[in-house]
Amino acid sequence: MKILAVTGYKPMEINIFKEDDPRITYIKAAIVKRIVPLIEEGLEWILLSGQMGVEIWTAEIVLDLQEDYDIKLGIFPPFENQETRWPESLQEKYQALVATADFYKPIYQGDYKGSFQFKAKNMWLADKSDACLILMDEEYPGSTRFFYEAAKQAIDENSIFTITPADLDDVVEEMRMSDPDYWQN
Question: Considering only CA atoms, which of 131, 171, 129 is closest in space to residue 31?
Fold first, then answer.
């Protein structure tokens, strides 16, 4: 596997409304736990559409991992200026990520024209990837269900990896247990 698409919830879909929410730390740790072994096995590219939430957090992770690993980041938004309706702090973060990504190219030139652009983005990312990683609860898939359906059409089911609520619980517990103070009580 050389190319992995990563997606998941937007922050508001999982009730995260502040950039310093401690749950982001756990989500990032779960993503790192899944992608580092793939990088060590030869993963070369991580592709994202750059939407806020899991994808922005993944982009930050990849840029951090580039200090120790040869991994590249490609950002392929469905259209130009997707961030214009986002909070200003997220717009700035997105623009900084786009500027430092190894490759950036919108699927469609110009601004938002219709929902077809999101469908095309999902199909394009699934088609260009060898595998995908989705942070998703199958009971409450939210917007992730659209990419998941596209991935099932384009990618072998054995190459569709998920991070579930149970996986997040495991990461939280692992992080708590790694804290020396945890064992003092």
Answer: 171
